[in-house]
Amino acid sequence: MSSLSGRDGPRYKHTASDTGPYETISVEKLTPIIGAEITGVDLGKLVSDNRPNRQVDEIHRALAENLVIFFRDQHITPDQHLAFGRRFGDLHVHPAAPHEGDDPALMKIHADKDSPRANGEGWHSDVSCDVEPPMGSILYIRQSPPQGGDTLFASMYAAYEALSDRMKAYLDGLIALHDGASVYRGLYANYGVADKVSYPQAEHPVLRTHPVTGRKALYVNRGFTRHIIGIPRDESEAMLAYLYQHAENPLFQCRFRWTENAIAFWDNRCTQHRAMWDYWPHTRSGTRVTVKGERPV
What predicted TM-score, i.e. pTM, was given to this entire model? Predict the structure, then answer.
């Protein structure tokens, strides 16, 4: 049995009995290996009651089984967005990005005709440079472009499982450096955000074991991984180039077409994602709440 925990104890326990039909939500898979749309739930009403709730348990389960889940036509306030995130654990504050309102855990996501860039354009796992990277991210898009702006998600379970046994053996036990400085320095200057003296940096296993499902996942990404420790630098560069290309195989992916007031909730421990900025000069805008995670093992 595995659990998803916050400071106040286990929030979800994944057991062998969690394999039957869902009772309080409907789950429609996007692909057999990653992604599902969830219907039959009003998240605004759900978070108004903070007591244990069967529907919350089933959302936990759907996330564990599908890696990323989507909710359409949700009308939630910033406080409800934050409250939904807290149902999964304590909230993570981004080390560089601007936030909306008074709570620094409510990250601003916005791109329009005047933006020099958009959030998350390259393949990455959110803030993997933290010593304890985020467990999950919950993105609420209030305004979406008329076309474009999709987000791609890839299963790192599938990426690991498709490796040869010899490659798995080679990677087992290797550690990689993840660094945020080269990503975040100057990144939010257009919002008037000044650079910090330093940004997070951490060493993580190239292969990690998911604390809820017990499955192994590949845990390197183009965004933050800099090199594999303990092997020659040219070997590291060649190996990472192969692993990045491997992880981005379309066979491991699903693609989500945003509509206004839609929500995506993904598990950073076993996925990577990439946001497409193919909608200029239109606007895409919303907020993101991120849930704290644990040190990868």
Answer: 0.92
From CA 107, how far away is CA 91, in angstroms rounded?
11
Q: Of the candidates 201, 213, 188, which has an alpha carbon nearest to the alpha carbon of residue 269?
A: 213
- Rounded Cα–Cα distance for residues 98 and 112 (Å): 16
DSSP code for 192:
T
Could you tell me the domains of the chain? 2-291 (3.60.130.10)
- From the list 210, 152, 224, the residue with the least C-alpha distance to 182 is 224
Active site residues: 124, 126, 273, 288
SS3 83: helix
First to last CA, the chain: 17
Query: For residue range 168-219, what is the model confidence (pLDDT) as tens digits?
Result: 999 999 999 999 988 888 777 777 777 888 899 999 999 999 999 999 999 9
